[in-house]
Amino acid sequence: MTLADDLRMERDMVHHCFHPQHLNRSASQSETVEGIRALAVDKDNAPCWNPARIEEVTPDMVAPYFISPWTPTTHPLRELN
User: Fold this and answer.
1) Mean per-residue pLDDT of the chain
2) Contact 20, 27 (CB under 8 A)
3) Predicted structure pTM score
């Protein structure tokens, strides 16, 4: 991958972290938001992950993070070379 392709992929993944529609969840139900809540908002250091254990994460749950929510012509970083 080129650096530009890598940065576009990272941007796609960050988008999915805050907009997990591919997991049939709202933004407020994302694991990222839950981690922020547990660490910085409530400071209880007790995140309620879903799924609760890393062993329960399936390849089907991870694969959508690698699919861009944008087309090549609409990607926010489309002009990177």
Assistant:
1) 94
2) yes
3) 0.83
